[in-house]
Amino acid sequence: MQNLTMRSIGFVHSPFSQADQIPRGLDAKHDEEGMLEILPEFEPGLEDIDGFSHLYVLWVFDRSQGYDLVSTPPCDTRPHGVFATRSPHRPNPIGLTVVRLLGREGNRLRVRGVDMLDGTPILDIKPYLSSVPEAELKRGWQAEVEARRKDSNCATS
Amino acid sequence: MQNLTMRSIGFVHSPFSQADQIPRGLDAKHDEEGMLEILPEFEPGLEDIDGFSHLYVLWVFDRSQGYDLVSTPPCDTRPHGVFATRSPHRPNPIGLTVVRLLGREGNRLRVRGVDMLDGTPILDIKPYLSSVPEAELKRGWQAEVEARRKDSNCATS
């Protein structure tokens, strides 16, 4: 593959202007409402999106610098590989969030569950179509940390 | 945001060399096994990944050209906005697949559920941590198509 150049299709409006305002921790709830504002040129791509309850939002960690292949998350005392974490310091700084769609007004999607900083560039939106049954999920080191301590500070979104 | 340049962290080995080999349709199962081969320089980022049962794989539709903001999927007779579909013809040609992790051997992850072409470039891998309960999901036009006809040809992955 040649290097691939991405561009923003819109921006997130969220209540968070600084990373330390975003709820973290194993029990963190991401219930904050926000707005996904899509650039007018892409608005036709939203046709029929309002029939879906949940969306995947792909976005850019635009205020993160560089990456670490191995690092210790705030919630743990042990290091883990970046692809086993949600760290913002990734080789390709793409974030992924599942949001609940509350409503659409033209080029704006009102959503619940934002964990992005205000002004975050959006790369793509996709419909959320199916879930892995909870009974089939294994969550590796995160589950171990949960078992060890309940009050840790670890992003689980 | 300045335009963002992405690079491949690895490649997918899959049984599919052509798009028409990939199972599609509302009842399509993606049970094929494949391999995610991560470039050696990124292998340390896989540390501890084998504790997770499921992974998100972000990848590039590297054999798609251009995009359509509105188009009619193979399964339907009505057009929909690109952000309400899984079309490969997107403003940023990023694909997203949930796979089951079967095992790791060094820089190779054996997985089930590939729906990518052989040789597809990988951008990122993230742990799958939680699901939206099925009872809360609404699936818009896809649910309507399912209700109208059971034998349609529509990607649901």
Please describe what this structure looks like.
Two copies of one chain form a homodimer. With 157 residues, the first copy, chain A, is mostly beta strands. Chain A is 6% helix and 31% strand. The first copy, chain A, contains one helix and nine strands; from the N terminus they run βββββββββα. Chain A has one helix at residues 140-148, and strands at residues 4-6, 10-13, 33-38, 54-60, 70-71, 80-81, 94-105, 108-112, 121-127. In chain A, the strands form two sheets. In chain A, strands 2-3-8-7-4-9 form a six-stranded antiparallel beta barrel. A two-stranded antiparallel ribbon of chain A has the order 5-6. In chain A, a hairpin with an 8-residue loop joins strand 5 (70-71) and strand 6. The longest helix of chain A has 9 residues, at 140-148. The radius of gyration of chain A is 16 Å and the shape is globular. The two termini of chain A are 30 Å apart. In chain A, 42% of the residues are buried. Chains A and B meet through strand 1, strand 4, strand 6, strand 7 and strand 9 of A and strand 1, strand 4, strand 6, strand 7 and strand 9 of B.
